[in-house]
């Protein structure tokens, strides 16, 4: 529940900052000394770029947690498949496989 509240708050901040950036861009575009291009640059540099960076950095722990959960599920599925098989994993020992190809060597 706390994570949902955190992300809700984070997106609320993103929406508020986007509103501020839009208002800055509109002020730049409608100014007597400004231009529409200046307004677009203002919106991108003050709005899009910082908020993209903030959202990416704030979502990093959630991405890591999801990645670890996915890896744990894959490991569990792999272990389950090995347990259902013959009981021993192929080449589970520390020895090389019997049908391995010998490495190429230079001739003396």
Order of helices and strands: HHH
- Name the average pLDDT: 83
Low-confidence spans: pLDDT under 50, at least 5 residues? Answer: none
Total number of helical segments?
Answer: 3
Largest sheet: none
Based on helices, strands and strand pairing, what is the structural class? mainly alpha
Count the beta strands: 0
Q: So what's the overall shape?
A: elongated
The termini sit apart by 70 Å
Structural notes for this entry:
- The protein has 3 helices and no strands.
- Helices cover 71% and strands 0% of the residues.
- The longest helix is centred in the first third of the chain and has 29 residues, at 2-30.
- The mean pLDDT is 83.
- It is an all-alpha fold and 108 residues long.
- The chain has helices spanning 2-30, 36-58, 60-84.
Annotation keywords:
single chain; 108 residues; mainly alpha; 3 helices; elongated
List the helices and strands and how they pair.
Layout: H1 2-30, H2 36-58, H3 60-84
Helix pairs in contact: 1-2
Quick recap of the structure?
The chain has helices at 2-30, 36-58, 60-84. It is mostly helical. α1 (2-30) runs antiparallel to α2.
């Amino acid at each position: 529940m706390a994570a949902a509240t955190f992300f809700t708050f984070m997106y609320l901040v993103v929406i508020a900052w986007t509103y501020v950036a839009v208002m800055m861009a509109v002020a730049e575009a409608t100014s007597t000394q400004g231009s529409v291009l200046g307004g677009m640059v203002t919106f991108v540099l003050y709005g899009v770029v910082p908020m993209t960076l903030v959202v990416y950095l704030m979502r990093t722990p959630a991405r890591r947690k999801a990645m670890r959960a996915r890896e744990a599920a894959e490991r569990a599925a792999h272990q389950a498949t090995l347990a259902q098989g013959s009981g021993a994993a192929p080449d589970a020992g520390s020895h090389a496989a019997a049908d391995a190809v010998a490495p190429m060597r230079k001739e003396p």
